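Box 4.2: Ligand-aware structure prediction
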Amino acid sequence: MVIFSGFNLIIPLKTNRKLYIETYGCQMNFSDSEIVGSIMATDGFTIVGQPNNADVIFVNTCSIRENAEQRIRKRLKEFQLLKKKNPSLVIGVLGCMAERLKSQLLEQEQIVDVIAGPDAYRDLPQLLNTLENGQKAMNVMLSTEETYADISPVKLNPGGVSAFISIMRGCQNFCSYCVVPYTRGKERSRNPNTIINEARELFDNGYREITLLGQNVNSYHWENLYFAGLLENVAQIDPRLRIRFTTSHPKNLSDELLYTIARYENICKSIHLPVQSGSTRILKHMNRKYTREEYMNRIEAIRRILPDCTISTDIICGFCSETEEDHKETLSIMQWVAFDYAFMFKYSERPDTLAARSLQDDVSEEIKARRLEEIIAMQRHLSLQSNKKDIGKNFSVLVEGTSKRSATHLFGRNSQNKVIVFPSETLKPGNYINVIVADCTAATLKGEILT
Ligand code: SAH
Ligand code: SF4
Ligand code: F3S
């Protein structure tokens, strides 16, 4: 249906417009896309699962490494073909790349019509309204208060058992390599009542696992309530609701928090604690605010208070001035901690960060690649060792779905966040079941239902 304005412009009615959202980057970005979905649905849009017949395409972007941005630019080229077929198609770029590049992106990528930074999503309907006559629209204002606390996110993959809740936004740690403080703005926490209500609602709708999200999740605070207190409040909703959280910064991982995790069966025994490097000299250049020994001290606290907890990490290799000695210290701390899982990256210089402004990206691509390979090989070995130790143990598994490899097998996770595959054709996603581990690879545990 169309309406005719006084100037005889043809403007489609707001209703029935279809929006497709594609998301890159971290879990916070996926959670943001659900907020965007909710704002747009309220404005009359239907959210669709693929781009072909959409009236509007939003790409929620990531700037963390150069190759993340390159991938997104390639995808924008593909959307150009859709726009050729349908010239009224609107393309919006949201998220960190929008915030980092601002109007430059409108100049570089001609097909982009709308730019919205992470704190500007309430303005999206308004931005779309200003697009007539081939104009472009942009809002990249960062806020010190926006947490979207009152917006109930729409689930873009409904019917799941696991959901994310953003509990804080922004980061002001200024690790020297990192673009996030510039793209996400100042750290701010969300009103705890809205967090607890959202968690309760998700549980009532069948969700059984919630991950509390923040770039620096354990520095959460709202008046006198700190992260340990919030975690406790969410854990008390129902013992059948599992709670996870990410990402913790080693400087904020207190013993009090570890004791809270120990007290509740449903707070999962798995901690993601990015180390980044094993060399104190490199950690100082990275502005990580802890030494190798201080990091090890936090690992010892986890081992003491939570003996069955798994520990995962993030590692960057080839940071400015990293020597062979520094690299060996990274390998040795990996071995000392015996990480169960790791995300591993080559350093990628990001324009305007502290490192880009004051340090030389002086480790060659070849050396970065070789060091990364050694780190990946070390982690593969450690993950296999960790999984082998679980053979013969039994775990309560939350069923997530059917195994990709076999229709007669289900998969789920244990509290330690390890994936377990086991034969069953009767259980459903959201069920809990006890499984005994019989075999493993470096990536997966294989088990049988304990009868
Ligand atoms: N706030 C979280 C996650 C930040 S991004 C934290 O503090 O850990 C996720 C990971 O990407 C980081 O932990 C880091 O290992 C990696 N990363 C960030 N900037 C990077 C860069 N410029 N080059 C390579 N890896 C980077
Ligand atoms: Fe980036 Fe450091 Fe903040 Fe993590 S804590 S988002 S690595 S600045
Ligand atoms: Fe990427 Fe932004 Fe997340 S840079 S990792 S999407 S906070």
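In the box above, the bound molecule is FE3-S4 cluster. The chain has four domains: 4-139, 159-268, 276-288+296-389, 394-449.
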